[in-house]
Every structure is written in structure tokens, then in C-alpha cells.
Design goal:
315 residues, 7 strands
Length: 315
């Protein structure tokens, strides 16, 4: 048994250190990452995959923590993938969910993985799908994915999870108006969080009105659920809505269609990475420096530089 197989055995047994190391291998795309995915992929497709997205300040982290506790009441093992924005200067991230969800760290049935998006747009990190698949393969019953919260273009989550929950809060009508052309179309469940604050009912009516204005992507009409992480309001309703959507998606074929699209995107991404890696390995630093200098000197344009480099590879 090699080191990776030992690591996988320990991870399947629930050893925290082994799970963490396995996730790091995949997230950092270390040499063993490919084998790790290959050895676990056949065991995926069993977990409930839920994404929580929405503008900053809507209480995503607090709701994820409360939702985790609610799922745990039924004995479900829960994994949380929380993506935080990276600094454009240092590349680091605060990973604040480790603070906001500190009460969940003492629960052996919960594993929280904070990730930096490392400049990747769309609200997620590049390796998020692979991390979610590892959790699924390790036998976690529920995987909750919390996105960065960047707003209108935060749509990558639909390619990672089965059910997308879009959060807003009372009094955030302008915020909803700003994001409706982006992520509201991918929402499977609409959530008015912080429902203990004034204006929650108005927010629900506003969302219901918005749903009547646009055309539906599918036959599924997103329900609007009021929640409050502080007093537990609506948590069971939210879980019911998630389970109802999952059942409908399986029965209607939407689940397979969505996973097909997600897999097409993943395979194309891997293909691009492989091609770029192979090309980069075949272009010598000297040849690259030469064409860069010629482009800077205006004796060669950027497109001709690419043609030159590719032409040299065929010799």
C-alpha cells in the first residue's frame, strides 16, 4: 500500500489529519492529485450538494453554521466548503469562516474547509468542484458550499452543487435589483435571511414579484423561504425546500442535465490545463524571451509572436 492509498484509507476512516492532507493535495494540484481524484471518483454522487450565495452582509456564514447544526440533528455528516476572496497583492485570504463557525469545529461529524479563491472569478476557487467531490466520495451526507459573495457574476456555484440557495435580507431591494440579471436566474431556492428584522415580509413579496417578471428556466418555481440563524426560524423549511428541489431535479432529469453540463465544463477545463502545461513545457525560456523582446520593440505583433512560437514547436 503506497502513501496515497494509506492516506485515503485514513480519510475514509474519518481521520481529520488525513482528510485535511488529502484536500490539500487536491486543492494545490500536487502530483498525487490526479490519482486521488481517480481513486475516489467512482464513489461520488451520493451526497446532498448545496450552494449558498448572495451579496456580502446577507449572513451566509452564520446561516451555514445554523444549517449545519440542523442537518446534524438527523445524524448527517456535514462538510462545509467556504471560499474567501484572496488579496490581489499577497494572494492570502482571511478565511473568516474559521472564526464565524468556531462552534462547529468541536463536532466530529462536521468538517470545515476554508479556501481562498486565488483570484478566480465566479465566486469560487478553481479546485472547489474537486474538493466537493472528495467530500462526497468520503461519505459525507451533505456538502455546503459558501461562495465569496461577489454579486452579479457569482454563477460558478451552479456547476458545483445540485441546489443553489440565493440569500438576501430585509431592506436589500436595491441589492436584489443589482444582482437579478446575474445570479437570480440560477437560484433554486430564494432565502430571506435575518427574517427577525423588520421588512422580511416585504422582501418576500418583492422576490415573488420578481419571479413573475422573468421567464422560468425550468418547470421548477423557486420557493421563497424566510430564515433566521439567530433563533432558528425557517431552518427546517429551508431543508425541506432543498430536499424537494433535489427530488424534483432527479425525477425531471434536471439533475442529470446539470451534472452533464458541469462535467463538460470540468473536462474542458482539465483539457485546457493539460494542453497549456504541455505547450509551456515545450517552449524554451530563450525562445519566449526572444519573441517578447521583438514585440516590445514593435518588430513583431503579439499574434505573430504566438504564431512564431507555435511554428517552432512543429519543427
Amino acid at each position: 500500500m503506497n502513501d496515497l492509498e494509506k492516506l485515503l484509507t485514513g480519510a475514509h476512516a474519518g481521520r481529520i489529519a488525513d482528510i485535511a492532507r488529502l484536500l490539500s493535495i487536491v486543492e494545490n494540484n500536487e502530483p498525487e492529485a490526479t490519482d486521488a481524484v481517480r481513486l475516489t471518483y467512482a464513489n461520488t454522487g451520493r451526497a446532498i450538494l448545496v450552494g449558498l450565495t448572495g451579496p456580502p452582509g446577507t449572513g451566509k456564514s452564520t446561516l451555514v453554521s445554523a444549517l449545519t447544526a440542523e442537518f446534524r440533528k438527523s445524524g448527517a455528516r456535514v462538510a462545509v466548503v467556504a471560499v474567501d476572496p484572496s488579496s490581489p497583492y499577497t494572494g492570502g485570504a482571511i478565511l473568516g469562516d474559521r472564526i464565524r463557525m468556531r462552534e462547529r469545529y468541536l463536532d466530529a461529524g462536521v468538517f470545515i474547509r476554508s479556501m481562498a479563491n486565488r483570484g478566480h472569478s465566479g465566486g469560487l476557487a478553481r479546485a472547489t468542484r474537486r474538493i466537493v467531490s472528495i467530500f462526497d466520495a468520503l461519505g459525507f451526507d451533505v456538502v455546503l458550499v459558501e461562495t465569496v459573495g461577489v454579486g452579479q457574476q457569482e454563477i460558478d456555484v451552479v456547476r458545483v452543487v445540485d441546489t443553489v440557495c440565493l440569500l438576501t435580507i430585509p431592506g436589500a431591494g436595491d441589492d436584489i435589483q443589482a444582482i437579478k440579471a446575474g445570479i437570480i436566474e440560477i437560484a433554486d431556492v430564494l432565502v430571506v435571511n435575518k427574517a427577525d428584522c423588520p421588512g422580511a415580509d416585504e422582501a418576500v413579496r418583492y422576490l415573488l414579484q420578481m419571479l413573475t417578471l422573468g421567464s422560468q428556466r425550468t418547470e421548477w418555481r423557486p420557493p421563497v423561504v424566510k430564515t433566521s440563524a439567530t433563533d432558528g426560524t425557517g431552518l427546517k423549511d429551508l431543508i425541506d425546500a432543498i430536499e424537494q428541489h433535489r427530488a424534483w431535479a432527479v425525477k425531471s432529469g434536471e439533475a442529470r442535465r446539470r451534472r452533464t453540463e458541469a462535467m463538460r465544463d470540468e473536462i474542458q477545463t482539465l483539457l485546457r490545463e493539460r494542453v497549456l502545461r504541455d505547450l509551456a513545457g515545450r517552449v524554451s525560456p530563450k525562445a519566449l524571451d526572444d519573441v517578447v523582446s521583438r514585440v516590445v520593440d514593435k518588430t513583431l505583433d503579439p499574434y505573430a509572436a504566438v504564431d512564431t512560437l507555435l511554428g517552432n514547436l512543429g519543427r
